[in-house]
């Protein structure tokens, strides 16, 4: 008897994990989320509380301070948090380490050094004691990673870093930033990754950015002015940073796809509940055929995105991150899931009518938050172009 993908997501252990995360979200997150949105950031205490509950480090190896499990377990955490009323803005901020730490972990596991960095940054972050972020995007561009301009020049046992980064998630609160810098010539072959501590002289948060959505996730513009970073903070090999960044894109894109269909499912659930309780002209809103058809289409798109993404996630457990077919699966899943959530949140607001336009309604938050998913982790248009190359078109 073969095991289906859906069975993998519904083992007794994962069902227990799902229930525990939903309960934690309902108790520790949902009552405070509106205030955190007004504050523009999450409290550091939430990281510690999530770690203590056992959810912050799910999917990370125990040997680096993680809670164990794999990408499927991490997916269950995301799904459950959204199902209970969390948001992608919350997840972007609370789990920023999902894009800040993997490069360090990979470099250490491949024997390219990094055990010191694991002890200094990975373990305390997974324990909820530190906050990390990833600094790649610059004022001059984002998706074109090979053309970053922030430069690091070797000077004895330090690199001297000059440049700027922008749109950096958790950059205001972060204790350190895993930063893409240019240590060599032009193009992808001249890029390295350095872990830069926030309190290093010359490193400043030049601006905290206000956004359309993800209000509880702080986003920063960073400046580096002759910042001296120890050579020991190099992640992997010098001029090998581009490949470390590229290797993490599969996981990042699948993670965003999960956020997308998870948000779509939550928006659909909210819309169904509202349509059942809202009376219009003497009948529940859901009695109207036009509304039922909307809900059916929302369900269909959400289910398709979930199936495609979960299939790719399962493949990623045993397929090298550099496998072109897996890269294509991740890119396709992200674009399909983004298209699904953009349709679903739009229709959900329509079902809610005037209430859907009110800041007090949860659907308002999902509508605003969903817009970034087709931009972050590779814009939809860039993903389509990459898909064409992978397909040989």
TrEMBL record:
It comes from the Bacteria. Residues 11-108 form the Acyl-CoA dehydrogenase/oxidase N-terminal domain. The keyword Flavoprotein applies. This is Acyl-CoA dehydrogenase. Keywords: FAD, Flavoprotein, Oxidoreductase. Signal peptide: none annotated. One of its GO terms (biological process) is fatty acid beta-oxidation using acyl-CoA dehydrogenase. Residues 239-389 form the Acyl-CoA dehydrogenase/oxidase C-terminal domain. It comes from Aeromicrobium erythreum.
